[in-house]
Write a structure and sequence with these properties.
2 copies of one chain form a homodimer. Chain A is an alpha/beta fold. Chain A contains 12 helices and 13 strands. In chain A, strands 1, 2, 3, 4, 5 and 8 form a 6-stranded mixed beta sheet that branches. The longest helix of chain A has 25 residues. At the A-B interface, helix 9 and helix 11 of A face helix 9 and helix 11 of B.
Chain lengths: ~325, ~325
């Protein structure tokens, strides 16, 4: 060990790529050691998105050198599937990223940088385990409910990946009857209980439930975003109550199924909807308790994400430090 | 290595404890090397069952010495939960085994025997991976449907155990609406689609579906065991068709959920019901394909158990060899 020398401090760079923006920050084993920076994608596609990522990385390389830090390792969270064997990425919300060679592009531009990539859902649970609600847990699940629904799952300290790195796609879970063709696009659970699913539920009820369809006091069609519904619920709106009750049933049943199957220590609720829907965690637990394996449900805890929208970024930071070979 | 000497061949003893009988056999790395022996429990309880296990072990020690084999290692499959840290067992179908100190009892009687215990569902998938339908698989699930429903799950070659060794209890999976109080005892999936669940479904339909309740040609109440229903289906009985169609929907949805979540290479169908219900595997796959994550369902294979009722015994044999420290 060289102590007291002018050697720059070695840090990892975490990058969280979303469908609309890229966030980045520097990390050491204590946590975030730089300001967080965000670049918006502004409808960029394919290799342009790769360029944006590289632009963000360069700004951090610059920032680090000015602050006596050195970045040799990079962790990237991607919104979709990362194929571990090839380093290629499928990100359904980024046009041109149905088979994007992310690792290759990064390696081409960043010599001597040790790079790790993982899916956003894997990064959420890594982030929460490292610095959030799941510290010390080895069997824990991050249930991400936003535009889509997915689960990041830690089993005995290891990320569940599946045979082809597609594990955790529980937006496709079958939780009710009967099958309707619209499930083919979203999956049953996601159709009903994602952010857009809440809006769909409200519109479905308004259109087909005679109790609500004729009532002029009910929510207008343009007031059916999840936050509108949450607000209307607080004001006592009965349609909002019916919508949220149904969402709670779906979240409760899915949580119950995770508990019966995995016997986890905790389920962490995150994503854009949790967020505001964490106010319903007690009701979700009560719904889950009706259905779940009775011993496992008594042992599990349901908790909100502590890192919120930074969970993926912290996970990417953790990835970058794990890959640290210095 | 001493070759050509008279040293006895070292083998492992596998014991598969069920709710009504105990099966045992000797194993080496090639497979079973002795006849299989079975002892019936005949309503024995608590420590008497421990005595029966010991009696079976003694008969194998005797058989081994007569056949120039030596048993130093033992693997036991138990019908319930094995708590790894304590060696205690919860087996709901054996009276007096709600917290049975199996490892302690065996250790007391068997000096110098290296003992491994695991749950039946863990042993099923270990057995199939070793000598059955899942050879070479690292991500594979054994869906056991019999008196109860459970899953033995292998993830990257490791058994899924959960925080308290209770993982895999998917008989409790919530797969339909609404919740009914009877689910509290069995779990929703098990209520509808276990062996007794098939009988329950037939009785429910006969009692409440006007199409069937008044038809004198329909199945009598005493003809509603699963095998009766399978037989009636072959004879074109419409009630049997309705019952099995509903069972296929539940099996299909549960399989779909396993596929979306785990992205496994295979699901192996076993237990007393699969068995005869393997004739429906193609229909179960078609039902699963409606609901599941589309990439994962195209990659997975649904296969019958190759070891059948010996899956747990082979798993116990595999356990015994894994623990082999010779």
């Amino acid at each position: 060990m060289h102590q007291g020398s002018k050697n720059p401090e070695s840090v990892g760079l975490g990058i969280d790529l979303g469908g609309t923006k890229i966030a980045g920050a520097l990390f050491d084993s204590e946590g975030m050691v730089s300001p967080k920076k965000v670049l918006y994608l502004e409808n960029k596609t394919g290799h342009e998105v790769g360029e944006q990522i590289f632009m963000l990385i360069e700004s951090f390389l610059d920032w680090a050198s000015k602050n006596s830090m050195q970045i040799n390792t990079l962790g990237v969270a991607v919104p979709g599937i990362h194929y571990l064997k090839t380093g290629r990425v499928w990100a359904p919300n980024i046009p041109g990223w149905d088979d994007f060679p992310l690792l290759e592009e990064l390696n081409d531009k960043l010599e001597n940088m040790d790079i790790s990539i993982d899916s956003d859902r894997a990064c959420y649970i890594l982030g929460e385990t490292w610095k959030g609600s799941a510290i010390g847990c080895k069997h824990v699940i991050f249930l991400a409910v936003g535009t889509g629904i997915g689960a990041g799952i830690l089993i005995d300290g290891q990320i569940l990946r599946g045979a082809d790195d597609i594990a955790g796609a529980i937006g496709w879970w079958a939780l009710t009857d009967p099958f309707i063709p619209a499930y083919k696009k979203h999956g049953c659970f996601e159709y009903h209980a994602s952010g857009p699913g809440i809006t769909r539920t409200a519109k479905d009820i308004k259109a087909h439930d005679s109790e609500f369809s004729k009532d002029a006091d009910q929510l207008a069609a343009e007031q059916m975003m999840p936050n509108d519904i949450f607000k209307a619920l607080k004001e006592g709106n009965p349609l909002a109550k019916k919508v949220i009750d149904q969402s709670i049933r779906f979240w409760g049943k899915a949580s119950a199924n995770l508990v019966s199957l995995f016997n986890p220590e905790k389920i962490i609720f995150g994503g854009g909807v949790f967020g505001p829907a964490v106010q319903f965690l007690d009701e979700i637990y009560l719904e889950a308790k009706k259905w779940a394996q009775p011993v496992s449900i008594d042992k599990v805890k349901f908790e909100p994400s502590k890192l919120g929208s930074d969970a993926g970024l912290y996970g990417a930071g953790f990835l970058s430090l794990k890959s640290n070979k210095i």
